Amino acid sequence: MSAELTRGENTQLEIVQAAHQLFIGQGYHGTSMRQIARSAGIALGGIYNHFSSKEDVFVAVLKAYHPYHEILAAIDVAHGDTIESFVESVATQMVAALRKHPEFLNLMLIEIVEFKSQHVPTLFSDLFPRFAEFGNVFASYQDRLRHIPELIMTRAFVGLFFSFYITDALIGSQIPAQMKEKALEHFIDIFLYGIVNRGQVETSKF
Amino acid sequence: MSAELTRGENTQLEIVQAAHQLFIGQGYHGTSMRQIARSAGIALGGIYNHFSSKEDVFVAVLKAYHPYHEILAAIDVAHGDTIESFVESVATQMVAALRKHPEFLNLMLIEIVEFKSQHVPTLFSDLFPRFAEFGNVFASYQDRLRHIPELIMTRAFVGLFFSFYITDALIGSQIPAQMKEKALEHFIDIFLYGIVNRGQVETSKF
DNA sequence: CCTACCGATCGGTAGG
DNA sequence: CCTACCGATCGGTAGG
Question: Is A7 within 7 A of strand C by CB distance?
């Protein structure tokens, strides 16, 4: 892709790539502009030809590396004649998409810890319409599901699998083999079992 | 409690308290030893009479403020004749315990982002035996539950409610009212519905 | 895009 | 053993 870039654009890209590597390895305050410059192959002052501040570099890294395009694409690609196959397809592809970008979790944690989530509202407002759209898919299977608001169902789905992803990424190496084995499949199974109405008496209190 | 402390112990406590406040507000690298000293009411050099380094201060803060004692106490206090009342009791008290210590999430994120989870194995190995013990409670309700390994069930439980806690803490202010309302109760309900065997044909693939 | 410099501040240390 | 300073210095920082 770099063949089509002007020299200026190429330098900008190298700054973002270098900064990304350093941020996920050392955090934001733990990384200096001099390190970024050196790693990008330019002088310190050269960064300020492309970015107005260190924070500006971080925002560019956030935008360049967040994988929600791919996660949402995974939702679009997902298919299934039944709610079961749909949920399994989405979950599998979401986890696969997140696993392809283990650095993103790190980036978001930096955003939370060192920026107090300052830039999150922007990211979330981009995401929310698609999030609501996802809820509509649940609504289309309404007759097979228990009476739970779609947005709650969507949040529970995202939360459950995001928590799977986070616990897998963070403490996966310490989790006993018994626990890791088929854990995602069990997570999917528990979620489905939790939302699908199997025709017996509705026991939800809500 | 401070009435029983020697002057040296009191100073040490004030350093830890000051450092805690600053770390959760600014991160580790975003906080200077001078800020900690000023906030603790002593000179910079005085910190080094109690701690050998800035990292040493952070470890002391981590140990002093992690609330797993209280979370595990919440589990001990939880009771219920049925799996439903037990899960509801534990979930409610865990969320309440975590909500009483919103700073702990921040501390753990600093540990992850800025220390690459270096100190986590120690914390987790303290926790794991109690974690397994919790799984045994599920085992005691075995005849009412689907055939899912206890540790998977425990991880799903912890993951689901930890994800509720995290999403609530991080983006709670941006979640539509419809979504927040009774969300915890719905989470509990979904989990219970997902693990309890209601006597019909077992549909789990596992 | 580089050189070179600024005011300031970083964690940590010295001896008194 | 502790508190509270001193002058000096470390590698590294934002920003012009």
Answer: yes
